[in-house]
UniProtKB/TrEMBL annotation:
GO cellular component, one term: cytosol
Signal peptide (residue range): none
Protein name: Bifunctional UDP-N-acetylglucosamine 2-epimerase/N-acetylmannosamine kinase
Binding-site residues, Zn(2+): H584, C594, C596, C601
A biological process from GO: UDP-N-acetylglucosamine metabolic process
Location(s) in or outside the cell: Cytoplasm, Cytosol
The family this protein is said to belong to: In the N-terminal section; belongs to the UDP-N-acetylglucosamine 2-epimerase family. In the C-terminal section; belongs to the ROK (NagC/XylR) family.
UDP-N-acetylglucosamine 2-epimerase domain sequence ranges: 53-390
The organism's place on the tree of life at top rank: Eukaryota
Catalyses which reaction(s): UDP-N-acetyl-alpha-D-glucosamine + H2O = aldehydo-N-acetyl-D-mannosamine + UDP + H(+); an N-acyl-D-mannosamine + ATP = an N-acyl-D-mannosamine 6-phosphate + ADP + H(+)
InterPro entries: ATPase_NBD (IPR043129), ROK (IPR000600), UDP-GlcNAc_Epase (IPR020004), UDP_GlcNAc_Epimerase_2_dom (IPR003331)
Location of the active site: D532
Amino acid sequence: ELYFKNLSKQKQKEVMEKNGNNHKLRVCVATCNRADYSKLAPIMFGIKAEPQFFELDVVVLGSHLIDDYGNTYRMIEQDDFDIHTRLHTIVRGEDEAAMVESVGLALVKLPDVLNRLKPDIMIVHGDRFDALALATSAALMNIRILHIEGGEVSGTIDDSIRHAITKLAHYHVCCTRSAEQHLIAMCEDHDRILLAGCPSYDKLLSAKNKDYMSIISMWLGEDVKIRDYIVALQHPVTTDIKHSIKMFELTLDALISFNKRTLVLFPNVDAGDKEMVRVMRKKGIEHHPNFRAVKHVPFDQFIQLVAHAGCMIGNSSCGVREVGAFGTPVINLGTRQTGRETGENVLHVRDADTQDKILHALQLQFGKQYPCSKIYGDGNAVPRILKFLKSIDLKEPLQKKFCFPPVKENISQDIDHILETQSALAVDLGGTNLRVAIVSMKGEIVKKYTQLNPKTYEDRLALILKMCVEAASEAVNVNCRILGVGISTGGRVNPREGIVLHSTKLIQEWSSVDLRTPISDALHLPVWVDNDGNCAALAERKFGHGKGIENFVTLITGTGIGGGIIHQHELIHGSSFCAAELGHIVVSLDGPECLCGSQGCIEAYASGIALQREAKKLHDDDLLLVEGMSMKEEEIVSAAHLIQAAKLGNTKAESILKTAGTALGLGVVNILHTVNPSLVILSGVLANHYVNAVKDVINRQALSSVKTVDVVISNLADPALLGAASLVLDYTTRRIY
């Protein structure tokens, strides 16, 4: 913990130096109504308390400045904040058009204010239409935006506005783990998301023990006892105003019948709010002996009122968020908060279409006491937010980047696509065989040709061209449209130029070879070339276990040991195209000699060649064959004989395979500690024999943070051919018609 604290201080120091030692972060906090001020005020107090780091400008607009809603800007002044600017932005009206006009009026007035203030960052809260105007203005004027409470889910138009602000904002402070995941799913940069909790909880969790009886008496009367009154707060649902007005009428009727002292707060400024006020007056709520109707209650007093109420009823987000901190029973009416995370204290009445439903809910909930819920915060949000603000580097590019997930290929619908199957010619150059295949978009091998790989460069290139021409001609007969040629070969490859730089010893006369030019000229098709290990990784990414996985590693266990690394959905080649030479990870300083000239490589222990070498040694010493095995005189000893002997109980063979599996496992552990993939895929003929040994070594040798990695066996029959095909299919189908 001390290490991370020191690291954080160092980072803040570096950011201060980058931003200029004397430069304080100029923060503009814009507040639109009583609800968002309750969330922003704790942050504002925190900013004000650290003048060596921040300059605070406060802009007030929206319903704060309307008498009908309590002129709530006064509580900002009472909190001793200097209000830099007051903007009258609310257009009076009773329909949706008034909300639109209010946004427009705010957009007209805000540019002048922002030009004068020139803030480094603007803090915007929530999901109100006023906040959308703030975020739009700041984004268009190249001012960084910190959005509070993004990623949450609820009903009505607020949901759409909240997500729209998220897309405009550069930084995000969210309250719950689910909200954080929603932001990531919306392609926001994880590094710019802070899971802090709700700022209002910093005040809530320290408020309950304060003097509350005087507050209850002031707002509800001296004869009211704790847990014997109701707090009601209901807003219009702008996507269904008529229904929400009807629900409000039913709520008031139920409260009148329930006959308990009730504090009713006026609704927000929204389309339909005036009609709700008329309903209150029509039913005589303002003069009813059991009711107290108020425009506004200061937040610190409101906290005490809901903390000690017998029940809260309505559709305010406060009911499903803040009230849970006290375990007060809540009745959530209608769809306005649909999707919000709630504690067990909340009873939902989604279809509140009769007075009896609401009355029954009141009878169930009133007077109960639930466990306190901390879904939305732990009381330490503000310190985290201030630390986050200090870490912002103003020299970073302003243009935000989105982190898009991989998407399925979009096959365009022109006549060629309808009549023909999009396919690739895949070429696999192995140590023994040369194979060419027609591979469809879905990874189906439509036709495959196999020949022995010639020993000379001229013969090999001539055979590749002959087989490719033959396959391309056959493609017409099987209704396949060839989009290009992909070549998988051993050795080090420059994929940008299509050149084999250095080959393995298994393929002779195969260094500094330009494969792209002669094949492309002969077939009049684009040609891609890559290392066989990289191709295996690409095959897994497109057709196998790696599909949709951001970070994984493929290991080929065959004649040699190879592999490929996929990081953030992309193949890693390295600065000199030598990345993922996984077979040449050294696991012993004095191990057997490898074909690369080094000692102790994984390939020197676990490759087919290495196992064949050890099998020959045993055979020469008459220690290989056991009961149940036989060999012809002319038969060549191979790795298969060693594996067969181990299965039949040959302890020497078992020991050799165990050592090979351990070497491979140690190599995998090194890979885990270097690139930290979430998945390791073992491919090739020896994968089945090594998978358990690799898992055992990981459990014994790896750091605990990487032990959870999945190790699986590839389910692809031909990864080299499929990988070569994916070189073509991944590029040539990225077209938009």
